[in-house]
Every structure is written in structure tokens, then in C-alpha cells.
């Protein structure tokens, strides 16, 4: 009688429950190990998606302004972007290359001069001793090696990203529909809505980020020219490009600019540091918020945490792509959990 009650009231016996629990744990562990092993590849796929989002967004803009067919606008967006980049390299490439070579030749002497100036006061001497210690140098080497770690090598990663971006640009629906069809039929409509919203938010974020990079380049270039800092063009380009990396990018860009300014005097170096801080404050508090008004709001501390958690797994790509990754995660949480919880209440 008791056994029949157990069979009717409890579907599985104790040994079966143990095996099921063990299987679930093993599946979770295998899933986490697989995610760890393929996380860098997934970030490269995300970078390719961002390139496709840019090309598709530019194509949509051309279509709205001209009324041309989608295929023609897409060709113009891809080829036009490549031609514009080639034109910029042709116009300022020689000067940028000259200043880049000059910067690489100047930095060692600048570092030596900075060390000499720091050695003139007790606080600077303590700082130099801390920086020159074997433990600090070893930690710095580990950080640098981790930052420049890549999946297929730097050129290989760029090659993969570009080709993925072109494939996603040409036929995005093939990949989105294929991903949606892997899910149960009841969840396909929700999945398609979520994917569409992710694409829209990534496009808004990318627009704001590119505009902010341009503004940072212009403001930095104007400030450096007014201060009479040499190699202003390459320093401004570095500042604009590294602004793509939130929080850490502007700090990295400020280092060579301050070192170059030290070749003149300490006051100029302080002015250059103040310029970079002022530009970053303006970009963070006025430029980006005004451009990305309708974008999902991500707290700055959350971005820093994402960079700290992701970068150990993927190096520099983790720092670069932490923000769009957080955009995707927050949309997933919002659409798949928060909205359903509100409806349930």
C-alpha cells in the first residue's frame, strides 16, 4: 500500500533523484566550462555584430534620405565607409605616421625626464621605489600580457571580426531566424522581439559612442594646439579612439600626452592632464547623456564591474566590449524577467 502511494505521489525514487541531481550539476559545470573556453570567441562575434549594426544603421539612414533600394544603400554604406577611411589615411596618414614615429622615439627620453623630476622630492622618490620594485613590475607585466591577450592573435581577431561583420551585414535575417528557430515555438515571438530591441539599443549606443569619440578628438586636438603641445594630432587621435573604452580608455590616452608635455615643463603637463580630465567630464556628463537619452540607462559602477569581471577572461576585448555586453544583459533581464514579473503582479 505504501509503495503504491509512493509511486502515485512521488514520480521518482531516491536513487533516481540522486542521478537526476548529479546530471543537472554535471550539465551546469560542463556549461560553465564551455562558456569559459568560448567566451573570447563570443566576444569576437559581438564585435562582428557591432560592425554589422553600424553598416545596417548607415544603410537605413541613406535609404531614408534618398529613397534608394536597400541593397544599393547597403553597398554604399560599406564601400563608402571603406573609401572614407582610405581618404582620411591618404590626407593625414603621412603626418600621423610621422608624429607616431616621433612619439615612439620621444617617450623613452620623456619617461627618463619624468623620473628625474619625481626624484627631486621625497614623495616622488617613494613613488619611484614602489614602481621600480620587482613585485610591481611583475604585476604590470601580467596586466599588460592579459590586456593584449587575443584568441587568434591581434591580426587574426581583426580578420575574424571584419568577416563576421560583413556576413552579418549582408544577411542578418538568416542568423537571427536560425537562432530563433532553435527555441520552442511558444518562445519564438518573444525571442524575436528581444533580438529586435537588442539591435535597436546597440545602434543607439554605437551612434552615441561614435559621436562622443569625434567630440573628444576635436576638443583634445583644439586644446593641445592652443597649448602648443607637439604631436597633437596623433595624441588627439589616440584620445578619440580610446574613448571607445569606458573609464580606462581616457586614462590610458592621457599618459602619453602628459609625458610629451613634460618635455616642455611641469606646468604644461598639469595643463594637459587638466584638459583630458575636463574633456572626459564633459563627455561623460553632457555629450553622451544628451545623445543617448532613449537608451537603456547603465550605472557607471556597473560598467566598471563588468570590465573587471570580463577582462580576466578576454583581456583587452573584455574592456572594449563590456558596455555593449551589459546593454544586452540588461535588455534580457528587462524583457524576460522584469516585465513578466510586473505583468504577474
Automatic annotation (TrEMBL):
<dbReference type="GO" id="GO:0016020">
    <property type="term" value="C:membrane"/>
</dbReference>
<keyword id="KW-0812">Transmembrane</keyword>
<protein>
    <submittedName>
        <fullName>AI-2E family transporter</fullName>
    </submittedName>
</protein>
<feature type="transmembrane region" description="Helical">
    <location>
        <begin position="41"/>
        <end position="59"/>
    </location>
</feature>
<feature type="transmembrane region" description="Helical">
    <location>
        <begin position="210"/>
        <end position="239"/>
    </location>
</feature>
<feature type="transmembrane region" description="Helical">
    <location>
        <begin position="291"/>
        <end position="310"/>
    </location>
</feature>
<dbReference type="GO" id="GO:0055085">
    <property type="term" value="P:transmembrane transport"/>
</dbReference>
<feature type="transmembrane region" description="Helical">
    <location>
        <begin position="147"/>
        <end position="170"/>
    </location>
</feature>
<dbReference type="Pfam" id="PF01594">
    <property type="entry name" value="AI-2E_transport"/>
</dbReference>
<keyword id="KW-1133">Transmembrane helix</keyword>
<feature type="transmembrane region" description="Helical">
    <location>
        <begin position="18"/>
        <end position="35"/>
    </location>
</feature>
<dbReference type="InterPro" id="IPR002549">
    <property type="entry name" value="AI-2E-like"/>
</dbReference>
<feature type="transmembrane region" description="Helical">
    <location>
        <begin position="316"/>
        <end position="338"/>
    </location>
</feature>
<comment type="similarity">
    <text>Belongs to the autoinducer-2 exporter (AI-2E) (TC 2.A.86) family.</text>
</comment>
<feature type="transmembrane region" description="Helical">
    <location>
        <begin position="251"/>
        <end position="279"/>
    </location>
</feature>
<feature type="transmembrane region" description="Helical">
    <location>
        <begin position="71"/>
        <end position="92"/>
    </location>
</feature>
<keyword id="KW-0472">Membrane</keyword>
